[in-house]
Design brief:
The structure holds two protein chains of two kinds.
Chain A (H helix, E strand, L loop, with lengths): L4 H15 L3 H34 L5 H11 L4 H12 L14 H25 L3 H9 L4 H11 L1 H17 L2 H7 L3 E4 L4 E4 L4 H11 L2 H28 L4
Antiparallel strand pairs in A: 1-2
Helix pairs in contact in A: 1-11, 2-5, 2-8, 3-5, 4-5, 4-9, 5-8, 5-9, 6-7, 8-11, 10-11
Chain B lengths: L3 H33 L20 E7 L1 H5 L2 H13 L1 E7 L2 H9 L5 E4 L2 H9 L3 E16 L13 H10 L4 E3 L5 H13 L8 E3 L4 H10 L3 E5 H7 L6 E4 L6 E9 L8 H14 L2 H9 L2 H4 L5 E2 L4 H5 L2
Parallel strand pairs in B: 1-2, 1-3, 5-6, 5-7
Antiparallel strand pairs in B: 3-9, 4-7, 4-8, 4-9, 4-10
The chains are: A mainly alpha, B alpha/beta.
Chain lengths: 245, 312
C-alpha cells in the first residue's frame, strides 16, 4: 500500500509505447493534430479577416460585437460540443450532412471555440500598431487593401501569437470533441490494435484512465504536454519579437 | 524599408494558409460524399450493396460502456467488419444516452441493457426489430471486510437495505445507464430511499465507478462482465449475487428507418449486422469470449439455444 510502483511501471511502459511507435498511440496523435490543425487554420482565416474588418470600419454596435467576441473567448468547450451535436445529429437542422461523430464535426466544434480567441487577440494586435504607420501609408496613397497588408505585416507577431493561443486551446480541449466526435476508434483484428477515428489525445486519456490503462494514459499525457510546451515556447518567441506587446 | 522580402513572405504565407484550408475542407467533403454513395455497378440509385467489396461503409452503434469496456465488441465485430467491408463506429455511453443518441438519429443501431427503456423506445416509434442478444448478471461489489455484513446474501434488495442502514459508502452510476436503472429498481424493491452523504452519485461509466468505489472503500452495483475485466486491478470483491432481480439482458435494436429517410442505406447494413450478431457465428463468439482471459465467460448468448450452438 502507498507504494508508487505503479507510477514507475506506468511511466516505463508509456515511454515504450511512445518510442516503439505504437500504432494506437500515434494514430491518436495524428487525429489530434489533424483536427486541431484544420480547426485552427479555418479559424485563423476567419478570425484574421474578421479582426481586419472590425479594425478598419466604424459602425454603430461595433463595441457590442467586440464584447460578444471577447465573451466567446471563454465559451465552455462542452457547450460548443453540445451545440454542434444538436445541429449535426440527423434530427437536427444540419443532419443531412451526416457529419455527426466524424472528424468534420470535431473541426466545426473547435472552430467555434478558437475563432473568438484568434479574432480577439488579433484585434488587440492590430489596434496596437502605431497609428502613425497607418497615417503615413494613407498619405502615401495606400488603398484599404494596401493598408491592411501594411498593418498585418506590422502586427504579424501578435497575430501569430493569436493563432498559437488558439491552437493551444484546441489541442488541450476535451469537452467539445468528446460530444461531437464520439471518441471512436476502430479495431483492426489483423494488426491486433485500435486505430483512432475520432479519438484524440484528451478524449483517449479520459477513456484509457476509466479502463484502468494507466500507462497508455501516461504516454498520451507526455505527448500532449510536449505539444503544449512547443506551442508555448513558440508563443514566447513570437511575443518577444513583437514590438507591440 | 529594407525588409521588402518580408512583405512577400507574409503574403505567401497567407495564400498558403488559405490554400491548405481549402484543401483540408474539400478533402473532408469529398471523403464524406464518397462514403455516402458507394460505387458499385448493380445499384443505380445509391442503395447499398452489402456484400460487395470496394468502398468501406460505416454504421454507427451506440452502446453501453460494459460491452465496449469489457472488450467483447472488438472481438465480436471484427469478423463482420472484415467480411462485409463495413466499419462500425462504436460510441460507448450509458443506456439512457445511447437511446437518446439513436432517437436523434446520431446512431443507426443500439445495443443496450434496460428492457423497460428499450420497450418505451420501440413503442415511441424510434426503433424496430429488437432482438434478444445475450445476458449476464449484476453483482454487488464491496470491500472484503464488508462493514455492512452482506456477504453471501442472495437477496439484492435486502443487501441494499443493510448497506443503507450501516451508513456505508455506496457509489451509484447516476447516469441513467442500464446499470443505474437496475440499481433504482433494486432500491425501490428494498423500500429504502437512498440518501445521505454515504450515497454518492458519480455520473460516470462503470469502469470509473468501480475505480472510485475501490479507492474510497464502498459498495457498488456492477455488471459481471465489467467486474471480471477489472478484478485484477481492484480489491473489491463480489459480496452478493444470484438474485433473480440481478438478471441483466442485452438487446439490439435498429433505429427506425422511416424516421430518417436518407438513412435507408444504413438500415440495410444494420439489419445485416443484427443478423450476424444473432447468428450461430456471432452467438458462439459471445459464448466463448472471456473464457481464456478471465477464466469464465462474460456474457451468455440468448438468440440461439445453447444445444444448437453446442452441436456446431
Amino acid at each position: 500500500m502507498g507504494s508508487a510502483d505503479f507510477l514507475v511501471e506506468g511511466a516505463v511502459k508509456a515511454l515504450e509505447l511512445i518510442f516503439s511507435g505504437d500504432t494506437y498511440v500515434w494514430s491518436i496523435v495524428a487525429v489530434s493534430l489533424e483536427v486541431s490543425g484544420s480547426a485552427v487554420l479555418l479559424a485563423a482565416i476567419t478570425g484574421i479577416l474578421l479582426a481586419l474588418l472590425l479594425s478598419f470600419t466604424a459602425f454603430k454596435g461595433k463595441s457590442i460585437i467586440i464584447a460578444f467576441i471577447n465573451a466567446g473567448m471563454g465559451t465552455p468547450p462542452v457547450v460548443a460540443g453540445l451545440f454542434v451535436f444538436l445541429m449535426l445529429v440527423s434530427a437536427g437542422p444540419f443532419g443531412f450532412l451526416k457529419w455527426i461523430f466524424t472528424p468534420q464535426a470535431m473541426i466545426i466544434a473547435q472552430f467555434f471555440l478558437v475563432t473568438p480567441i484568434i479574432t480577439g487577440i488579433s484585434i488587440a494586435a492590430i489596434e496596437a500598431v502605431d497609428s502613425r504607420i497607418k497615417d503615413t501609408a494613407y498619405t502615401l496613397g495606400a488603398k484599404t487593401l494596401d493598408l491592411a497588408v501594411v498593418v498585418v505585416r506590422e502586427a504579424r507577431f501578435g497575430i501569430i501569437t493569436a493563432v498559437l493561443a488558439g491552437f493551444g486551446r484546441a489541442i488541450a480541449e476535451v469537452g467539445a470533441i468528446y460530444i461531437a466526435g464520439g471518441n471512436i476508434a476502430f479495431w483492426d483484428a489483423e494488426l491486433d490494435t485500435y486505430t483512432s477515428y475520432t479519438r484524440t489525445l484528451t478524449t483517449a486519456i479520459v477513456l484509457e484512465t476509466s479502463k484502468g490503462e494507466v500507462s497508455t494514459s501516461i504516454a498520451l499525457g507526455i505527448i500532449i504536454l510536449g505539444i503544449a510546451l512547443i506551442v508555448n515556447l513558440m508563443t514566447n518567441f513570437f511575443q518577444g519579437k513583437s514590438k507591440y506587446r | 524599408m529594407t525588409k521588402k522580402n518580408f512583405k512577400n513572405l507574409g503574403i505567401l504565407a497567407i495564400i498558403g494558409a488559405l490554400l491548405i484550408g481549402v484543401v483540408a475542407l474539400s478533402g473532408c467533403i469529398n471523403e464524406e460524399s464518397s462514403s455516402k454513395c458507394p460505387q458499385c455497378p448493380q445499384c443505380k440509385e445509391c442503395t447499398p450493396c452489402p456484400t460487395t467489396t470496394g468502398e468501406t461503409k460505416y454504421i454507427t452503434l451506440s452502446t453501453t460502456t460494459s460491452t465496449e469496456n469489457s472488450g467483447l465488441l472488438k472481438v465480436l465485430n471484427a469478423p463482420f467488419e472484415k467480411k462485409h467491408n463495413i466499419k462500425i463506429k462504436v460510441i460507448p455511453e450509458g443506456t439512457g444516452k445511447a437511446l437518446k443518441t439513436a432517437e436523434l438519429g446520431g446512431s443507426d443501431v443500439v445495443m443496450v441493457h434496460a428492457r423497460s427503456s428499450e420497450d418505451d423506445f420501440i413503442a415511441a416509434g424510434h426503433g424496430v426489430n429488437r432482438r434478444d442478444l445475450m445476458h449476464n448478471d449484476f453483482v454487488i461489489l464491496g470491500p472484503a471486510d464488508d462493514p455492512a455484513g452482506i456477504k453471501g446474501m442472495t437477496n439484492a434488495s435486502e443487501a441494499f437495505k443493510k448497506i443503507s442502514e450501516s451508513k456505508s459508502n455506496f457509489f451509484s452510476r447516476g447516469d441513467e445507464s442500464g446499470t443505474h436503472t437496475k440499481e433504482k429498481i433494486i432500491w425501490a424493491a428494498s423500500g429504502v430511499e437512498p440518501a445521505g452523504t454515504g450515497y454518492k452519485s458519480v455520473g460516470k461509466g462503470m469502469g470509473d465507478t468501480i475505480v472510485m468505489a475501490n479507492q474510497q472503500t464502498g459498495y457498488t452495483l456492477s455488471d459481471r462482465g465489467t467486474y471480471l475485466s477489472m478484478k485484477d486491478e481492484i480489491s473489491l470483491v463480489v459480496l452478493a449475487e444470484g438474485d433473480l432481480i440481478l438478471y441483466n439482458p442485452y438487446g439490439v435494436i435498429a433505429v427506425n428507418p422511416a424516421k430518417f429517410p436518407d438513412k435507408g442505406g444504413e438500415y440495410e447494413l444494420v439489419m445485416l449486422y443484427i443478423g450476424y450478431l444473432t447468428s450461430p457465428e456471432g452467438q458462439k463468439i459471445i459464448r466463448d469470449y472471456g473464457k481464456e482471459e478471465f477464466g469464465e465467460p462474460l456474457f451468455f448468448p440468448d438468440a440461439v439455444p445453447e444445444e444448437v450452438l453446442a452441436d456446431m
